[in-house]
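Page 42, continued from yesterday. The earlier attempt failed because a stray header line got pasted into the input along with the sequence. Redoing it now with the clean sequence only.
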Amino acid sequence: MPLKKKPTGTLISFEGSEGSGKSTQIAHLAKRLQDAGRDVISLREPGGTEIGEQIRNIIVHNSKGDEMCAETELLLFAAARAQLVREVIAPALVKGTVVLSDRFLDSSTVYQGIGRNLGAGPVESINRFAVGNVMPDLTIVIDVPTEVSLARLRQRASDVPDRMERENVSFYKKVREGYLVLAKGMPERFFVVDGTKPEKTVEKAIWTAVQKRLG
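This time it went through. C-alpha cells are written below.
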C-alpha cells in the first residue's frame, strides 16, 4: 500500500467539466493556504511526474488519439495516477503537506465509467489498484452547465483543443451529471460549488469548505 505511515497531510482534489475554472481556483487556494503557513503542492492529472507527463502527452496529443479505445484511455490514466501517488502524493502526505490535485480518481469514474460507458465495476477496481489507500480528504466539484463549459472552451481561441476538449455535448452532459451523482452519494467527502458565480465568490466558498475540513 502506498501509505505505510499515518499521513498528517491533506489531499484535496478538484473535479469538474472542462472549462469549469479548476486551475484558477487551485491557484487561489494554494496562496491562501501558503499565507496561512501551510506547506502546499499543486499537481495535475494526468501528469505531475516525468512518467505521468509522457502518458499525458499520449492521452491528449497523440496523432492517433482519436482511435484510442475507452479501455486504453482508462488504463493510461490509471498508470499515470499510480506513479503520481507513489512518487509524489503519498510521500507529501506523510510529511504533512496539503496536496491540491487537479483531478484524481473520480475523473476516471465519471469520464471513463460514465462518459465512455465502461461501467462502475471495472473502473472502481482499476482506480483502487492505482491509488491503494490514498483517497482525497475533500473533493471540490466546480459545477457549470454544459453550455457554459463549452462556451468557455471556445473562448480559448489561442489554444488548439485537445482530444478530451473535442468531445460532443452529450458526453459533457453525462460528465456533469456523473459528478453531481457522485457528490450526492458521498456528501462527507464532496463539496459542490456553483462555477457560474463570480470568481471571488467561488474562491471564498471553497476556502470556507477547506477551513472546515482542515479545522
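Notes: DSSP finds eight helices and five strands in the chain.
Reminder to self: strip header lines before submitting.
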